Amino acid sequence: MKKTNILIAGGAGYIGSHMVRDLLNAGYGVITLDNLSTGHRNSVTGGTFIKGDLRKKTVLNKVFSNHHIDAVMHFAAYSLVRESVEDPLKYYQNNMGGTAELLGAMVRHEVEHFIFSSTASVYGEPAETPITEEHPCKPGNPYGASKYATEELLKACDTAYGIKYVSLRYFNAAGADVSGEIGEMHDPETHLIPLILLTAMGQQNYINIFGTDYLTQDGTCVRDYVHVSDLTQAHMLALESLLSGAESDIYNVGNSRGYSVREVIELARKITGLPIPIIETEKRPGDPAMLIASSEKIRKALKWKPRYEELETIIRTAWGWHRRDTER
């Protein structure tokens, strides 16, 4: 029986590499395309790997001509909010322009299924929580705006070319594969949980708490953390729905429960048994006080049920990865 082949753009990155692993374990054929500007070749655990830039039409034509592709998953985006403010052209050229090139290749080669890695940043400052998919989209930075513009492009491509898509709006991805063999590795690192664990390991002197007077239970920002393997499960379910003939749709992916910065630090201290020094500093512009997802839609429509909902589990898997990474 012929395998169903999935092209993963950005498959050497954090979430993409977990997706590669899970698709291979599920019996899919996987072709990974990554320029390794932020990804890591050794994070791709199997399948076919192609080093190349999705913004180059010649690269995409070669990939689609040499491989039968049934669906595309797109993780190849820049995602640093501060950098997007400082260099918005970089973000639009890659995040939207790169997606446009990828969709163009799909049209030329008659591939009709697309799963997009989107973000809760499309919502901007929330008017209410938990945030549903019907919440107005008013992104507060070029990163979120580039993702929202891409979602609008996907709608147009569905109408014009019949490309069926699922856009998954992540909240805070965290954790690592339970094997400890792959995990989160950014340079620079900007995500809270790995920064806390790097501090615990002595690789940085302290963790910054940006703002302590938000209108939350302890004055620090509250976020909804979702395990990376639960995210890949959401992608798998989205893929199955599209291959079965479902219409295009958009889903939030989060645990619908928020934790403050202080709560995350305290739990990390408990798990690691190590001191984690903090420094309280000024708020960062554009940081909402609270971001919590309503994931009711994806739970009902795709029967998504996260396996690693507890923050303790999320941090423990991340800690397992970081400890193993230092031993390599």
Tell me the fraction of residues in β-strands, as a range.
15-25%
Please list the strands of the largest sheet in the order they lie side by side: 3-2-1-4-5-6-10
- Order of secondary-structure elements: EHEEHEHHEHEEHEEHEEHEEHH
Structural class: alpha/beta
CATH homologous superfamily descriptor of the largest domain: NAD(P)-binding Rossmann-like Domain
CATH topology of the largest domain: Rossmann fold
The CATH architecture designation of the largest domain is 3-Layer(aba) Sandwich
Top CATH class of the largest domain: Alpha Beta
The profile of the biggest β sheet is: 7 strands, parallel
Number of domains: 2
- Please give the share of residues in helix: 25-40%
Query: Helix count?
Result: 10
Low-confidence segments: none
Provide tags for this entry.
2 domains, 328 residues, 7-stranded parallel β-sheet, UDP-galactose 4-epimerase, domain 1, 39% helix, globular, single chain, Rossmann fold
Describe this structure in words.
This protein has helices at residues 14-25, 57-66, 81-86, 88-108, 142-161, 192-200, 228-243, 261-272, 296-301, 311-327; strands at residues 5-9, 29-34, 48-51, 71-74, 113-119, 164-170, 172-174, 207-210, 222-227, 249-253, 258-260, 278-281, 290-291. It folds into 2 domains: 5-174 and 226-253, NAD(P)-binding Rossmann-like Domain (Rossmann fold), CATH 3.40.50.720; 192-224 and 256-327, UDP-galactose 4-epimerase, domain 1, CATH 3.90.25. It is α/β, with parallel strands linked by helices. The longest helix has 21 residues, at 88-108. Strands 3-2-1-4-5-6-10 form a 7-stranded parallel sheet, with helices on both faces.
